[in-house]
Amino acid sequence: MEPASKLDHNHNLSLREFPYIIRWRDDRCKRCGRCTAACPVKAIEPSVKVQRVVRSEGPVPSPHAVRNIVHIVEQVTDIERCCTGCGTCTLVCPNEAIEPEYNPQNKFMHYKNKGGEGYKRGGRRNDPSVSTLDRLKFTRISMLTDPALDAGRHEFRVRTLLGRILPPEDLPLLSDNGTLRVDKTTDRFIPPVREIFPIMIGSMSVGALSPPMWEGLAMGVAYLNEVEGLPVLMCTGEGGVPPRLLKSRFLKYMCLQIASGYFGWDEIIHSIPHMTEDPAAIEIKYGQGAKPGDGGLLMAQKVLKLIAGIRGVPQFVDLASPPTHQTKYSIEEAVAKMIQSMSMAWGFRVPVYPKISGTKTARAVLNNLARNPFAAALSIDGEDGGTGAAYNVSLDKMGHPIASNLRECYLDLVKQGKQNELPLIAAGGVAKKGNLAANAAALIMLGASAVSIGKYIMQAAANCFGDEYNRCNLCNTGKCPRGITTQDPKLYRRLDSDVVAERVVEVFKAANVELKKIFAPMGRSTELPIGMSDGLSVDDKAIADRLEISYAC
Amino acid sequence: MCRLAAITSNEYFSPMENILALETMKEGHDGSGLGLTLKDLGGRFRDAKGYPILSGISSNTGTKALNEFMDKAGFKLLDAWSPKIKAVKGITPRDHYFARVYDYPKSYKTKSIKEKEDLLMNIRLMLRKIGEPDQSLFAFSFYPDVLTLKEVGDPLQLAEFFGLDRENIKAKIVFAQGRQNTNYAIYLYACHPFFIQGYCSMTNGENTAFVPIREFLMSRSFPGYIGYNSDSEVFTHILHYTSRQLKLPLTYFKDVITPLKESERETRQDREALQLMKQSLRPLCIDGPNMVIGFTPDGTCFMAHDAKKLRPGVVGGVKGKYALMSEECGLDSVIPKRTKAKDIFPMKYDMVIIKPQAEELKVWSQLQN
Asked: Closest by alpha carbon to A101, among A21, A41, A40?
């Protein structure tokens, strides 16, 4: 005899527990099968069912039941194959017969730990509420006491500096009859400094991104620099760089990242003698906003021939970057040594800076770096930063919001008088709601020298489905339906690198214009308004107090 | 917007000339205040050249505190001048307006000028601290051969109030500014010209980059970089910081507040130095709109604009007497007999520099090789 539980499906989940419920319209579907073929998680499948239909034919009612076998598209109730709401099915459907619908009552998180394994995903923190950055307003408008500038007519310099800047008192300058010259006889180290556009593309690795995505970003960045005159930088992420790029002149637009796995660095180090240009900078990744204190992981299915080659590892093995650098046992010594070693590799011609997760301990890191004359900047990645793969608990619950973290670091530098010496790069949730220029400008006015974007550029340039309702977020699986974070040629052939590059250019050109439209009415044009906190207000007293800006309502 | 009238001459003249120049520009200021700084003093201060003069305002209690403090600090009062106040409608007189000539404490008599300057500034700051909570004491300047007067009201009426037309107060350099800072609260410490250790400036316009500049200056570990009741005070301190602290030649003040772009630097012999300066002094770049008139300890006067040049400014005159004004009518009032065609309206790259004793006027351009 069958147990009762099996008979009444008691241990099965109902669709109401699922985050997305497929709305399939029998009347519109022509059973082409595209949706079921395209679904990246196999959440829907073709099925047959017996349908009982009562029919009546002829002039006199003579109802009789007919049992038909019909083909349907059915959502499965296996939590491992639950619909992520990506909407690929809708995209491929010729008849608008199918679409996923968000189910706010879902209990997805209650079940997504099968096999004793915590839920892993890509994307960013699932918090659709309005972020602090989006609550900040620019309230100091020039009008009568000083004229507002014309964003279209006045000359604007939307540029920032990346690199350690000497304090004015330490500049090796000599005066000859009223003219200054640099004292070449001094052994004073003059650190390398790059003048860049204040929005950078943050670190996303060749392995995490598909070839057309990475190529599209790189092409877009090169075009922005060489044609549009916008010195936008892109960070490679851990995992090396295609060998051809290492030896090309385009390397100067790249920040090479070294992280705890050191993937790709054998190739990079061996390429140094053949490099025709220095990279823009070296980023040492100590932490990441999306998964603070957690290591990276490139899943085996993404380690194909190209990736294995670049990273110098066998194919199809999980590539784990440890949570910490193995050489790191103290910030005073190990981090300083690493910064110096990387600086030395390029003859101290390249700025080297660490990247950390947003954390309460950021100021301790900052204060150490402030004392290290070779540290070129500090990049802080807040809790809303995205990633290719992490435990959901890390993504949703770990980390520090960027706004107050950045602000306290900046004000700490102000106290020490070093606010212009060590640039701060802020990241994590920039343009979460699409307000790239406004979020960037707000962070700059809170004290950032530059901001980094990652998730946003995937969304804006390659139509990444991911959002804060846990939509899609399959980056970790290698099954990205847009072809952005996959190494599967069947998937990434969907993505056209030229289109990505074109969108990258559009995004940055628009941001450049919008930044001017923010700075112009505030009377700022010739220098980036770093730390111009009197320009900002917020409608929450507690936030205003914490950020030391004004409260406006 | 503030109206500014600065005159530099090789002969002593009355500050009334500046006041009358301001009067011609009256349409452009709201008569809400007057700030006067006189350098290279004549008249009754002619023989007190080597001694520091403390300029300020005090109440009766403030005067008592001042006397006690200065005695304790070892300063000996040599001379005290107070204007003979004439009641003028609309101006509320305070208890004491003063300019007191002191002798240095014995221990400082043989010290270097730099040490003396630091002492004088610290004394001024302490007096400010004593008097600021109850506004019983204002100390505007404490420096040899420099006198400052400030009060709320219409400049011409204030001249009458102070009796400037009658008093034997003269100087070779006089800076006058005809408006209190009405953007914020009217407060005497917000009134230009501002002065620190021989450097003085006044400004018209609104400094949109005020907060980052203020933060940068305040974090230089220099006790004098405080106050900032007006966004224009930072210009005086930038001048002091670049010239006195960093020892940069005066023209680099312009390169600091309005740095050249990379392509513009190419024509300059000192481009390497400029690049480093631009990076290290990035927070001191002003965005305007501002026109700055200033003087340095040696009596050099200058005028410079922000890069957008959205504020007026004109310089003209004859050898021996030049005027730096925010408007042409002020210039006409002070030096009517000059060749008007030679008046200079400095452009975005220009810095007009007038040598001490009004000997020569030069226009220095940032783009010069």
From this structure: A21
Q: Sorting pLDDT into bands at 50, 70 and 90, what band is B369?
A: low
Distance separating alpha carbons of residues A367 and A416, to the nearest angstrom: 9
- Examine residue A105 and state whether it is found in any structural domain, yes or no: yes
- Domain's final residue, options B104, B129, B144: B144
In a domain, B45, yes or no: no
Domain that holds residue A478: 158-165+194-310+326-551
Cα–Cα distances in angstroms (integers) from residue A166 to residues A113, A190, A370, in the given order: 52, 7, 11
- Which CATH number characterizes residue B354's domain? 3.60.20.10
Interface predicted TM-score (ipTM) over 0.85: yes
DSSP element (H, E) containing A4: helix A4-7
B65 neighbors B96 (Cβ within 8 angstroms): no
Tell me the whole-structure pTM to 2 decimals. Answer: 0.94
Closest CB from B276, B307, B308 relative to A182? B276
Number of neighbours of residue B279 by Cβ within 10 angstroms = 22
Asked if the structure places residue A254 within a domain, the reply is: yes
Q: What is the pLDDT of residues B295-337, one digit of tens each?
A: 999 999 999 998 887 888 999 999 999 999 999 999 999 999 9
Report the mean per-residue pLDDT for chain B: 92
* Chain A residues with CB within 8 Å of chain B CB: 140, 142, 145-147, 149, 154-155, 157, 161, 165-169, 171, 173, 175, 178-182, 190, 193, 195, 414-420, 522-527, 529-534
Residues in chain A closer than 8 A to B234 (CB atoms): none
What angle separates helix B16-24 from helix B155-162, to the nearest 10 degrees? 160
**Structure confidence by residue, pLDDT tens digits, A511-544:** 999 999 999 888 888 899 999 999 999 999 999 9
In angstroms, what CA-CA distances link A305 with A300, A301, A316, A402, A496? 11, 11, 9, 37, 21
Side chain identity at A70, as an amino acid letter? Answer: V
Indicate yes or no: CB of B276 within 8 angstroms of CB of A142.
Answer: no
Number of H helices, E strands in chain B: 10, 16
Domain with A378 in it: what CATH number?
A: 3.20.20.70
Residues B66 and B173 in one domain: no
Three state DSSP letters for B324-336: EECCHHHHHHHCC
Determine, yes or no, domain membership for B42: no
Residues of A within 8 A of B219 (CB-CB) are 414-419
CB A487 within 8 A of CB A463: no
E runs forming strands in A268-344: 281-285, 296-298, 319-321
Domain total for chain A?
A: 2
**A413 in any annotated domain:** yes
Q: B206 and A523 in contact by Cβ < 8 A?
A: yes
Segment B99-113 shows an average pLDDT of 95
Query: Would B340 be classed as within a structural domain?
Result: yes
pLDDT band at A261 (very low <50, low <70, confident <90, very high): confident
What is the arithmetic mean of pLDDT over B169-187?
Answer: 79
| Host H or E run for residue B256 | helix B251-257
Residues B126 and B202 in one domain: no
Closest CA to A293 of A334, A328, A323: A323
d(CA A467, CA A477): 17
The tens digit of pLDDT for each residue in A358-416 reads: 999 999 999 999 999 999 999 999 999 998 889 999 999 999 999 999 999 999 999 99
Q: A-B interface: how many C-beta pairs under 8 angstroms?
A: 125
Domains of chain B: total: 2
Check residue A11 and give its pLDDT: 84
Quote the mean pLDDT of chain A. 93
Secondary structure of residue A45 in the 3-state scheme:
strand
